[in-house]
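Re: calcium ion structure - here you go.
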Amino acid sequence: MSKLPVIIDCDPGHDDAIALVLAFASEKLDIRAVTVTGGNQTLVKTLNNARKVLSYIGKRPRLAAGADKPMFRNLEVAEAVHGNSGLDGPALPETDYKEEPIPAIDLMRQIIMESALPVTLVPTGPLTNLGILLTAYPEVKKNIGGVSLMGGGIETGNWSAAAEFNILVDPEAAEIVFTSGLPITMCPLDVTHKALLLPGELEALRKHGGKVSVMVAELVDFYYRYHVGQGFAGAPLHDPCAVAWLIAPEIFTTKDYHISVETRGKYTTGMTFADRRPWTTAKPNATVCIDIDRVAFISLVIEACKSFG
Ligand code: RIB
Ligand code: CA
């Protein structure tokens, strides 16, 4: 079976880095490019983190920097979660691996329009790059196979009571994506809060001792301290869920909903609102992952780490 062409759009970010490990370990994906956006940290930092993580795992895909701020708002970063560097924890070596001197949306457009097979987009940060891509180059839609995104929340938010960070940072871009008509699979907090790496599993990963296993363990050591404070029994691996959907959809339980993105609410801006009325006539615009086989998911992540030696 031919590999699925994908572009990963990310804001590394600890869980973005683990999503990159999972993606590049998979035989099922043909990663045509990685693009970067501001989000967890400023674009300068998330780009630097992407360069270092990819180089460290021995991968040098086509790489381009995208938006350094949301489409119509100022950037809000998540320093409390990811630290000042955006990837605090492991000391990753510097690298001469560099991004291409073109904007992310131009690289995305080139790859999508030249691909013999439809390209799937995998955004794991704010949706700014996709929002701009679909606005500037609407012609790309005919060769986008789908979008598998981490973002949103049906029953809860995280960065606000109503909204999840990726959507809250750029709700206008998210609205563009959710109204694009593209096939969307959404991995909201409802599923990613169940995608927990438990302390015993973390120690088993560290004990494996491989370079990528140790890097991921050190990433989680830093990342989990924020979540322990919120009462999580393990580290929620948000972004790897968007990759896991593409390589093992069978481990997810999904429902199709019509999702609207709030862009103007005093208390609810960034909320992803699912129309769950049994009698609704609203046509679903997203396949929403609502549950996960956690053990199978963690096994995918751990095997991916080990596959690097
Ligand atoms: O809310 C979780 C999301 O926000 C993840 O993508 C994490 O990396 C941060 O970007
Ligand atoms: Ca992210």
